[in-house]
Structure formats: structure tokens, C-alpha cells
Amino acid sequence: MMAIALVIGFLLALAAGSLPFGPLYAIIHPDFVALLLLYWAISSSSELSFTVVWLIGLLQDTVLGDVLGGRAVAAVIMIYALYNGLGRVRRLSFWEQLFFIFLLLLGQRLITWFWQAWSGPITWHFSLLIAPLIGALLWPLFTFVLDHLRLLLKGQVS
Amino acid sequence: MPTLFFPRRYPPLLRVAVFVVLSVLITAYSQKNPRLQGWAGTLSYPVLWINTQIVHIWQDTENYLQDRNALLREDEKLHRELQDLQPRLLEGEILRNENRQLLALLDSIPRPPGRVKVAEVISQNLSPGSQLVTVNIGSQAGVFVGQPVLADGGVAGQVISVSAMSSQVALLSDLDSSVPAQIAGTNIPLLVNGKGNIHQLIVPFQARNTALKQGDRLVTSGLGGRYPPGLNIGTISAVIHNGDEPFAQILVRPAVRLGQLNTVLVLWKETADPQERKP
Lengths: 158, 279
Prior knowledge:
The complex is a heterodimer.
Chain A: H1 2-16, H2 22-28, H3 32-43, H4 50-64, H5 70-89, H6 94-119, H7 130-157
Chain B: H1 12-32, H2 35-41, H3 45-65, H4 68-105, E1 115-126, E2 131-135, E3 148-151, E4 154-162, E5 167-171, E6 178-183, E7 190-197, E8 200-207, E9 217-220, E10 232-240, E11 247-254, E12 263-268, H5 274-277
Antiparallel strand pairs in B: 1-2, 1-12, 2-5, 3-4, 3-12, 4-5, 6-7, 6-9, 7-8, 8-11, 9-10, 10-11
């Protein structure tokens, strides 16, 4: 049941990241796939498989039509950084934890940008920083909603 | 979670390094084989299907929320526009007939730019790196790579990858986009390139004393054979001279509102070759 919910969740996150709602939406929408990956990695009792993370990133590249491999490698490095810092971050304050999420999202965005710059023409724009910022600000709401959904699903299963 | 291909007995850093190498390989391979992007596009059908449903729900909701008064106002506005356009339509018809007669005298009857098929935009990726949209028709409808895509106002872009039921379109604003152009009514060849900004295109490599000026309308020149000649590209919005730079910076406002595309027209040029004519 949880596996099906995860698949549906990632499909919805991939869709939300590519909706044709104009240039403003393109700038401000957070990377829902990255947020869901972070939530999954933090809330899961066991360590996430890097292969699964890489494949999800590759699927995101495919949906967006970007160069294959950019978001895949960024997702793997983001989850690796999360596991490295998680032990220390859990002892920090709410805002410091939020800042950690922002750094992870920003790092993932910048790695994707550098990957695209390496493989073809690309320009820099400050708007690249907006999506990670909004993603971090939405993080508490995002976790609140997903925590409740998870409890709801567990209740149905048991 | 299952470990799948990489057992966890290897150190995490080594596993990350393996995925970095894998990503380098897949990036390099997909750059050399653009078809891979089309095949990979097949995997995104479930996501594109969800996008289509959300877009339809959004449009239905928007229509439902429009109150009666707004609809009446729109109806009145459209009637007014229609009345304004009637004389111009008549004038256009007269000019077209006259043009045909003149061209017939020169033995060169103009051919229509081609046949079009309406496609719905179901996904977008508007970032400084890419200016792409995905449309809901693909190779099953006869779409092919390099095909021109039009929208309300003029040229929107061209198809860059095709899967069975969807196609990716690089907009004019994409950094890789370059369209052979000319000022309407002249034969001076120009290029209009994308600069990663949905509202702005550029004309590169124009000398500081260029004859181009603000307000000039740019149309496709037809050079290269990809776009039919005479299609609207945009209007020059600024000619900037920066210090000692050898070239003038010429900015173009696209004729099509590239950020607001809901439906586009995929164009099949009329050719003598029946294979190409077939959709």
C-alpha cells in the first residue's frame, strides 16, 4: 500500500513540476520531486537505495526534456549529503533545520545547472534561487500534510 | 527498500561516484544520439496523462468561474473586433486576388505554407537552460524532428524530439534555437536566436551601424527550408550600442506569447514528395 502511495506521489510530483501554467509558475514552483525524495529519505526507517533515487532523477530529466543524467546525479548527491548531515541536524533548531533543507535544495539545483552548462548552452538567472527558497519555506507544510497522509494510510492498512 | 543493483556493503561515497560516472556516460550518449530522448519520452506518458487531466480540470474550472457578465462583455468585445476586422478582411481578399493575378503573370502561383494540425500543450520546462513545451501528438500523428510549430501570431518553435504520442518543442526563446529571418519586405538575411528568456530574442552579429531599427517586423526568410517564408517572428524592441563592443545588441519581442501557449499548430509543408506529405 505504501509502495503504491509512493509511486502515485512521485507521479504527481513529476506532473506538478511540469504543468504548463506559464513563466511565473515555472519560476516559483519548488522541485516537488526533490522535496518528496527528502521526505522519503528522512521518514523511512531504512536507507534509500541510490539506484532508485538515480532512476527517479532520470525520469524527471525525461519528463522535462532536459539533458539525461543531470537531475539524476543531483538527486543522488542530495540524498548522500542528507544522510551525512542528518545526525547532526536533528539536534538543531527549527530554523536551522529549514536552512539545511534550503541548502540541500539549492545544491541540487546548482548541480543540475552545472551539469546542463557542461553539456550545452545555458544562462544564469537569479530566479534559479527562488524555487529552492520556496521549497524550504513550504517544507513544514509539506511534511505536515505527508505525515497525516502516511498515518491515514497506515490506519487503513492495519 | 531493496538494494537493487548495488549492495550496501560498498561505502556510500563509492556508490555516489559510480552514479556520477553512469550519469556522465548517459549524458554523453544522449548528446550523440538524440533519438534516445524520444524513446525515453515514452516513459513519461503516465506523467503527461496526469498533466493533461489537470490542465483540463483547470480550464473547466476557469470557464465555470467566469460569470455571465464577463461572458457578455467578452461577447460584446468580440463583436466589436469582428466589425472592425470586416473591412480589413475584404481589403485583404482584394489584395490577395490582385497578388494572385500578378504572380500568375509571372508564372509563380503562391503555395499555401502547408497543412497544420492542432496540438495541445501538456507540459512546460521554462528555465534559463531550456525553453521547452511538450505537445500531445507524436510520431503516430506523423510528427517529425525539425517540424515548424506555429501559434497565434506567428512562429513558436520547432519539434526537437518525438515519441509515439507526444513531442517536445523547443521554443524560439530556447538557447539552441536559431531561425533564418529577414525584415518584412526586404531580402537581407538575418538570424533570430533564443537567449533563454521567454520575452526576448536577439539578432546576433549586427554591426554598430546596422540599418535595423526599433519597430522593424521580422519574418522567416525560408532559408534552409525548415520554416516557410513570411511567417511572423517578432518585432525589434530595442537596438542597444554598448561601449566599445563591435556589435549592436538587437532585442526582439516575439510575435507569439511564448509563455502562454495552450494550443499550437504543427505545420507540414506542402512538398512534391508524397512521402513527406503524408502525415
